[in-house]
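Lecture 7 notes: from sequence to structure.

We start with a single chain of 208 residues. Read the sequence below before looking at the structure.
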Amino acid sequence: MKVIKKYQNKITYVSPKKIKFCIFPSKYCDYTQFGLTKIHPHAAINRGVFYEDPFGNTKINNFNWDKKPGVLFTKLLEFEALKNHYLGKQNWKNSKFARRNVNYIKKKNSVRGFTNSKVYLIRREKQIDILFNSILKKGIYPNKITKKKNITNDNISVVLTKKKELYFNNIGHHRLSIAKILELDIIPIKIVLAKSEKKLKEFYSLNK
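Now the structure, written as tokens:
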């Protein structure tokens, strides 16, 4: 798989509306949610995921992974939980996504460092309220990508298809969800993989 260093650590800005779909779970992906584990909180709906280059470069994958899109991002339990919480329809801690986290913890796992499910629900809901308020006031800022080895990108992670569409990879569920819910104009993203170098150049030339 080719690696493009020209766009190392590059962050670009797009409307959150442009990220409509997740990656279709196929054999061309590095792994799928169901292939990895079905009990993980983020694995309620099967999706494809690509590993990211540890140096912040963009990978090129010209296989047929983008023949069709995966699930709509707004159909994810993560998004529904945040939207219902923000609209006052259901507290986050009572959502299906929260219950998946609780079940995962009860099977002797940790979520965000929490091993007690009751403590997790209380503190996580408070963290979500803080995140909503912060994004309401300040928007979403890019996280600095260092050039040190094995430092993972922590920006909203996307891949670029042959049609120059952006599919959600696997980082930034909550930030992208909140950006969509609050209808933000632009957000910072990191393209971690593209169909071809040509499509990558074309995308950046149109999004200067």
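The longest strand covers residues 187-194. Keep this in mind for problem set 3.
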